[in-house]
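Hi support team,

I've been running sequence recovery on a batch of backbones for a student project. Most finish fine, but this one hangs at about 90% for roughly twenty minutes before it completes. I'm not sure whether the input is malformed or the queue is just slow. I've pasted the structure tokens below so you can try to reproduce it. Let me know if you need the job ID as well.

Thanks,
M.K.
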């Protein structure tokens, strides 16, 4: 049995590309188990490209990176679903299936990730919906829910397989401040239960209200508040 304490994310001398364009270079950082880290930077600075590389949507071409104990440089296409099962991924646009109920949206993911027992699926769906405060919404269609409630369903979906880390790209982007705050509280609670979070955001107020370590994409580099001081304020446009 192994009780590994290796970081959930570890990058060494990584270059992030979009096609042949270099977006970020010399990227070096770790995210430890249970850590909460923000990712900031102006629009186009490379936040989404970095996240996409971490969940193997963009290939790792240069440097070494490990995520949830998978070496990204050596990852074959057929291994990608196994990596993704260890991750929770949350986008700004909700990407729910609008022709299915909330429970069916969640069941779809469970079936695709090997949950063959129907009663276990049902049980897990009710657990995650309870966790995000939406246990009464299982049989509703997504369009019957508010934007904030839809985002909670997305968070519930990301929690289905008990991920070691949540990657969230602007999860509060389209939400009004009070609803965004509710989503942040949910993230904090999930983090307090041991899931690491790496969250890209343009929302300076949220970082002020819930201060955590910050990684900042700037001029093709990633700065880390853990190792150096930098100006936070100009990373949000
Ligand atoms: N699919 C793509 N094909 C080619 N270039 C892309 C693609 N997506 C992004 N880029 C380019 O890569 C660079 C980084 O973009 P990225 O989306 O990672 O930035 P970001 O920091 O997430 O921006 P935003 O805050 O606006 O989401 C930009 O120059 C962008 O134009």
């Amino acid at each position: 049995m192994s009780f590994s304490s290796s970081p959930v994310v570890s990058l060494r001398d990584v270059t992030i590309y979009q096609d042949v364009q270099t977006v970020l270079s010399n990227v070096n950082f770790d995210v430890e188990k249970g850590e909460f880290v923000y990712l900031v930077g102006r629009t186009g600075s490379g936040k989404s490209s970095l996240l996409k590389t971490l969940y193997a949507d963009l290939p790792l071409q240069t440097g070494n990176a490990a995520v949830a104990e998978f070496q990204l440089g050596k990852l074959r296409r057929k291994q990608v679903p196994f990596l993704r099962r260890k991750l929770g991924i949350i986008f700004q646009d909700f990407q729910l299936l609008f022709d299915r109920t909330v429970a069916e949206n969640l069941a779809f993911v469970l079936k695709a990730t090997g949950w063959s027992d129907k009663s276990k699926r049902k049980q897990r769906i009710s657990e995650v919906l309870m966790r995000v405060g939406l246990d009464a919404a299982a049989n509703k269609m997504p369009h019957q829910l508010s934007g904030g409630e839809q985002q909670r369903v997305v968070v519930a979906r990301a929690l289905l397989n008990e991920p070691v880390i949540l990657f969230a790209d602007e999860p509060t982007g389209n939400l009004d401040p009070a609803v965004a705050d509710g989503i942040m509280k949910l993230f904090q609670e999930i983090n307090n239960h041991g899931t690491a979070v790496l969250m890209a955001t343009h929302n300076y107020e949220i970082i002020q209200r819930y201060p955590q370590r910050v990684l900042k994409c700037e001029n093709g580099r990633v700065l880390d508040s853990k190792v150096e001081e930098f100006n936070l304020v100009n990373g949000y446009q």
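--
Follow-up from support: It reproduced on our side and the slowdown came from queue contention, not your input. Strands lie at 9-18, 21-31, 36-40, 62-67, 70-71, 87-90, 165-169, 196-200, 213-218, 221-224. No action needed from you.
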